[in-house]
Design brief:
By secondary structure, this protein is α+β, with helices and mostly antiparallel strands. It has 4 helices and 4 strands; from the N terminus they run E-H-E-E-H-E-H-H. The radius of gyration is 14 Å and the shape is globular.
Length: 102
């Protein structure tokens, strides 16, 4: 199912760990603290548990939203010409195999 993970974490070190975790699950960065990707329910639960463990007692919030296929295809986007193209800076899902259990 299509999912979006967003987080607001004060610690740069923890933010980086959460970003690495999202990429390990094959998610693509869409904002500096937001990722989108297709995750099985078991991987959704595993990712949020692992992210919560990395956050520990640090201040922050982590959200994982699931979006139905129909709604996903109806999403609207606007990207200005000056915005960084995060999609080209990161490997595509096909190039990066998810290794959620590692």
């Amino acid at each position: 199912m299509n999912c979006i993970v967003i987080y607001d974490i004060t610690s740069t070190r923890i933010r980086s760990k959460i970003a690495d975790l999202c990429m390990d699950y094959g998610m693509n960065r869409i904002q500096y603290s937001a990722f989108a990707g297709d995750l099985l329910r078991t991987h959704q639960e595993e990712l949020i548990k692992r992210a919560a463990a990395k956050l520990g007692k640090h201040a922050g919030r982590i959200y994982l939203y699931c979006i139905g296929e129909r709604e996903w295809h109806q999403r609207l986007e606007h990207i200005s010409s000056g915005a960084p193209d995060l999609a080209t800076q990161l490997p595509t899902p096909e190039a990066r195999r998810p290794t959620p259990s590692s």
